[in-house]
Sequence to fold (145 residues):
Amino acid sequence: MLKGKIFPAILIILAMLTANAIGGERLKRNWWRDPEISKQLNLSENEKQRLDELLIESGRRMIELKSAVEKERFELSALMENKSSNDSAITGQFKKLENARSALANERLQFLIQTRAILGIERFRELRVYFENLPREGHRNKSLP
Fold:
C-alpha cells in the first residue's frame, strides 16, 4: 500500500527536480538560491554550496549521458532505414538505446537522492509539496507549507 504511494511521489519529485537541474522552463535552475525558498527551507550557506556542487557534477554527467542517448537513437534510426539491417542488429541497438536511457534516468535519480541527503527528509518533503503546488503557468507558489 505504502509502496503504491511512494513510487508516484518519487516520480513527480524526480521529474520536477531533474527538469530543474537540467534547465527546465517551469522551475528556476538554482531553486536553493531563491531567497524565499532558501529562507523557508532554512538552508545554510554550506547546504547551498553543496547543492551548487551537486548541480555542476550531475549536470556534467547528464550532458554526457544525454549525448549517449542521442548517439544510440541515431544508430537505431540508421539501422531502421537500412534495407540490409537484420532484426537482431536492430534489437541489439534498441537494447543499447534503452541502456543509455536507463543510465540517464539513474543519474537523475541520484541527483534527487543526493538532494534529499543534503536537505533531510522533512525539508525534502516540504520542497516536494512546494513543487507539486506550482501552477502550470510557471508562477511561483509564494509559501511552503
Remarks:
- Residues 57 and 70 are 20 Å apart (CA to CA).
- Residues 2-34+47-132 form one domain.
- The longest helix spans residues 45-81.
